[in-house]
Design a protein that fits this description.
This protein is an alpha+beta fold and about 140 residues long. The chain is built from four helices and seven strands, in the order H-H-E-E-H-E-E-E-E-E-H.
Length: about 140
C-alpha cells in the first residue's frame, strides 16, 4: 500500500513539473535554464553529405527570448535565426509545431568548423557561446 502512495506522489510531481515547465515564458524564468544548459544550445549531425546544425534546444526554450543570432566559422553572430513564436495563449506555449519551419539549417558536409550564438532575452540581457565542431558533433 505504501508503494502505491509513493507512485502516486511521483506521478503528481511529474505532472506538476510538466505544467511548471510550460509556464516558463519570461526572460527571468528562461534565462537560468539556458545559462545552465549552454552546452546543449546547438547540435551538429552529418547526414547525406550535409552538416545539419540544430537549434532545437534554443527553439524549445524560446519563450522569453527576443532574438537568436549566429554565425558559422566567424565570431560575428550576425545572422538572425527565425524561430517559432511563443504560443502564450496556448496551454503549451513552448511547443514546437514545426509547420513550415525546421529546427536546423543545412550546409555542405564539413562546412561547420565553429559556431557563435548570441541570445537576446526580452529584457535586453544577452548571452553568448562560441563552440567548435567537436563540441557539438553528435556521434
Amino acid at each position: 500500500m505504501r508503494g502505491i502512495g509513493v507512485a502516486a506522489a511521483v506521478a503528481a510531481l511529474a505532472v506538476a513539473g510538466v505544467a511548471a515547465a510550460q509556464s516558463l515564458t519570461t526572460a527571468a524564468e528562461v534565462r537560468p535554464i539556458l545559462t545552465m544548459t549552454k552546452s546543449a544550445w546547438l547540435a551538429l549531425a552529418v547526414m547525406d553529405g550535409r552538416d545539419l546544425l540544430y537549434f532545437t534546444h534554443l527553439e524549445s526554450w524560446r519563450c522569453g527570448v527576443a532574438e537568436v543570432r549566429y554565425s558559422v566559422n566567424s565570431g560575428a553572430a550576425d545572422t538572425r535565426r527565425e524561430m517559432e513564436p511563443c504560443y502564450r495563449e496556448s496551454p503549451d506555449p513552448n511547443a514546437l509545431k514545426l509547420e513550415g519551419h525546421l529546427p536546423y539549417i543545412s550546409l555542405p558536409e564539413g562546412t561547420v568548423r565553429t559556431v557563435a550564438v548570441v541570445v537576446v532575452y526580452e529584457d535586453g540581457v544577452t548571452d553568448r557561446i562560441d563552440v567548435s565542431r567537436a563540441d557539438i558533433l553528435m556521434p
